[in-house]
Amino acid sequence: MNVLEKKWYVIKTVSGNENKVKAYIEKEIRHLGFEQNIGQILVPLEKVIQIRNGKKIHREKVYYPGYVMLEAFLEGEIIHVVKNIPGVINFLREQKGGRPVPMRKSEISKMLGKVDELSETDAGLSIPFTVGEKVKVTDGPFSGFDGTVEKINEEKRKISLTVLIFGRKTPLDLNFVQIERIA
Fold first, then answer.
1. Structural domains of the chain, ranges and CATH numbers in brackets
2. What is the mean pLDDT of each run of 10 residues along the chain (183 residues)?
3. Kindly report the CA angle at 44 between 33 and 101, in degrees rounded to 5?
């Protein structure tokens, strides 16, 4: 049996259901025995840091909402199997009713490079502030106050700064994401 040439395709999905669609495709392909026709199924995710109630929360967010990338040899029933999965709208096509359009090699390498880049940790981020710089607090109980950077703790990714409250200098320890540079 010859090796099937797989190409990358983009599937339009209901936004927010990308991971469910991926799981459904994997399950349906296994159930019907089409594993040799399908390669990878990707839902590119990025790591996001959010501040809620003064606490830093790490979570993953879909990088391309409403899209799932599929490496497949699309012949025969495969197109219909994938299109009939709950949450799938259709394949990305050049024209309505036409055949699914494979991604270009440049798009594939860009997408796969972006997936690798997004999966890396945030440890490589540079420190956006310097000691003595004027900053504004954007989150937490001191939101809106201006201050001066006194000390930077790279390991804990915290900044010590002083703000003027009722005419007195008050020290604060905040995360990098809780302050911004004053223009």
1. 7-124 (3.30.70.940), 134-181 (2.30.30.30)
2. 77 92 93 89 82 74 88 86 91 82 84 68 59 86 88 81 88 84 78
3. 65
